[in-house]
Amino acid sequence: MDAIAGNVNDVPVVFEAAADAPVGALLIPFNGQHKDNANIKGGFVQSLELIYGQPNNTVYYRSEVDRMAVAVTEEVPFKITVIEPKVPLVKSGSMTIKVVAERKEGFNAPIRVRNLWNPPGVGSSNEVVIGEGQTECYYTFNANGNAPTNDWKLALMALSDAGAGPVWTSSQLFKLTVGEPYVGMNIPMAAGEQGKSVAILCKLDQLQAFEGEATVELHGIPPKVTIAQNPMKITKDMTEVIFQATLAPDAPVGQHKSLFTQVVVTKEGEPIAHNIGGGGVLRIDPPPPPKPEPVKVVKVEPKKEEPKKEEPKAAPPPKPLSRLEKLRLEAEERAKQNQ
Questions:
Q1: Considering only CA atoms, which of 144, 274, 281, 130 is closest in space to residue 200?
Q2: How far is it, in rounded angstroms, from Cα 44 to Cα 28?
Q3: Domain span at residue 155?
Q4: How many domains are contained in the chain?
């Protein structure tokens, strides 16, 4: 058996019976020792709490056993095999593993597949069902950014009703390698107005060289936003990739903090998926209010004032005549009358 890593407390162990093994059961010892110090040893111990009571379900009687029960049963009508991946599950990445079911003739019941143990920093599907009469399914694993790099041995369990009740069986132990990512990414905030286009910049951090091209697909896009080309291609020499987005006139206004990308690098014919750039923000702004119409300035020419007409001066009052002038004037008038 392989050594158990120092940062875990449990690992899966698979027992396999030969095709001609006799049906039966045994209580067997199960022991272990330190990899580098044979004097550090331990063994299997199971505490069986047999009688509970008041108060608070206090244990009144228990027994401890230092043997593990192992039984060989009649052959079950199905078995599962995991197709071991050739590439690693990278940090901040995901992986889908194929599971193949072999059925005895006449056995078509659904088979439920589940994983009982995950390495540190690794998660997996709760349960996947191989449908009635089907022979395969796909099981998904993912790793967070702090998952320790290591080669781990895992096994999947399978459950089905073989006609006399539920029966469990196991896959073989398969290797799952957690490795370093090939690419990192940062998505700076992008901002645009409703009804217009905006460029979403993704800055690449090349961590490991890879051959050929990888695909980058932008996810977490808000509603009413379309991407002109998605996914896009990148190479190991590129430092950025730009997605052209079109915002509908009624695209939801605000900061949308859901952007991330999935980068898929292909190696040995198998995909290595990176889920990176999480937390990218697309800010959608409303259009600015319309500008007020400029005030038209009408130039008013000043009216030309017509020159004032000079009013005729009033004749000065007649000068008073002297007594002599009056007598002369009277004499002249008499003379005109006598002519």
A1: 281
A2: 10
A3: 75-180
A4: 2
